[in-house]
Write a structure and sequence with these properties.
The protein has 130 residues and is an all-alpha fold. 74% of the residues lie in helices and 0% in strands. The longest helix has 22 residues. The protein starts with 6 loop residues before the first helix and ends with a helix.
């Protein structure tokens, strides 16, 4: 983890975000959301969600830890699919995991392009304002 002043708070926030994503993927679908134009957007939502998760966690960890971040998030995506497989009202799809991996890769590219470590910069900005 980066030398964050409020590392514990960042960790709690990250766990909260993961719990919210897991919860959102396990609750029953909203009635009326299964129209044809939403069916193909499922993979897009997977990709965007995992891209955002990757950028979020890249804000707290150094580049040398990005591979662990990617493996951990891919395992989280697999956990989601396993949990969905156990539910009668959800379905598990291998292509969802592929979309997660694409989102993780996109997030890593964004992080490596200069966004990584953003939480350290946020803390420095807040400290400078105080």
């Amino acid at each position: 983890m980066l030398p964050l002043r409020h590392a514990r708070r960042w960790q709690v926030a990250g766990i909260t975000v993961l719990f919210a994503v897991l919860t959102a993927t396990l609750v029953p679908a909203i009635p009326g959301m299964r129209h044809a134009h939403f069916l193909h957007s499922d993979k897009l939502w997977h990709g965007v969600t995992f891209m955002i998760l990757t950028v979020w966690f890249a804000g707290q960890y150094s580049r040398r830890s990005y591979w662990r971040l990617a493996v951990g998030l891919l395992a989280f995506g697999a956990l989601i699919e396993i949990c969905q497989r156990m539910l009668s009202y959800r379905s598990a799809e291998m292509m969802d995991l592929v979309a997660d991996a694409v989102g993780i890769l996109a997030g890593l590219l964004i992080a490596c392009a200069g966004v990584g470590g953003w939480s350290l910069r946020v803390e420095q900005w807040i400290t400078a304002r105080e």
